[in-house]
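I am still getting used to backbone structure tokens and would like to learn alongside you. Please make up or recall a protein chain and show it to me in full. Would you write everything just below, so we can both look at the same thing?
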Amino acid sequence: MIKYLLLIVTFIILSSSLFSQYASRKFSSKQQDYIDSIKQVEYNYIFPIWGQGAYKSGFDIPYPAGIMANFIYLKQGLILEDMQLGLKTDNVDIPLTDVSFIEFGENTSTVWSTNVRPDLWIFPFLNVYGIFGYGQSNTLVNLEYPITFQSSVDQNIRTAGFGVTGAFGLGPLWVALDGSWTWNKPDLLEKPVLTKVFGVRVGHSIVFHNKPESNIAVWVGGMRLRMAAETVGEIQMYEALPQDVWDRKDDFVQDYWNWYNGLDPLNPGDKLKIKAADEILTPIVDKVDALDGDAIVRYGMNKRPAEEWNMVLGVQYQVNKRWIVRTEGGIIGDRKSLLLSFNYRFKV
């Protein structure tokens, strides 16, 4: 029936690589020698600003610039409301019509995505980054009223956006606050969907005694995802309706007319439903009855995540100051996710 999408792909993009550098900790003799050598560094690069001061204080800050490749899986529930439908054929052009009495069951959006994220530490505590990605989504929509059926639609998505991360130490722990804004353009939507993400993570890092440039960091945190509510798009009927509807089109049409004929024209609520049915639902059902899958259905709605917040757990291995590998999973809450990330860093 329609393609709905919730992305964001980018919502699990982590803040930059070496949060652990901002946590206070006890040092082995080899680590202390390494920190002492850091204090002697003459930092002659542009970024991060105040980098020299960070080194003089003994903080082994990350290389300022990086390129990160992310591979993401995301599945979450969707709430669909305020439905509108329209129809376009060679000789029919019905604009979007209010059919907000349509009711949905549990709907889910599943996304597989890859993206590239260049980033730069402007200050030792402040990172900015861009996001550029491509992926595929599957949206499963369960319609419960006025008739019952399930629609599953696949489409491609292009993503672009930016974000900012702040990181600081809190005793033996580090804290990272991350916000991002991404515009996700599915094939079937007229305009990109703005997704806003806020994340907070608290973690601890274990530095290898004999290899101070390497460490393992673990963290726990939470993420909130919000998206632009209004969605407008269009889709051909053969893509929107599952094959089962076309195979049993006589039953589908009969179910519709059973509902329509059961409405009471004297009831104000039913009267509005009859008007909307006459304007848009009946023409759509007539196309199904005629097996006309080439007709284009327009749609508009408000949509939102079933739950805005979810909990995340992550782990990162810093091989050295240039190479970092990490993974993070969303485990508690309606949103389930998995991230695998590779990061290369360099000086500028």
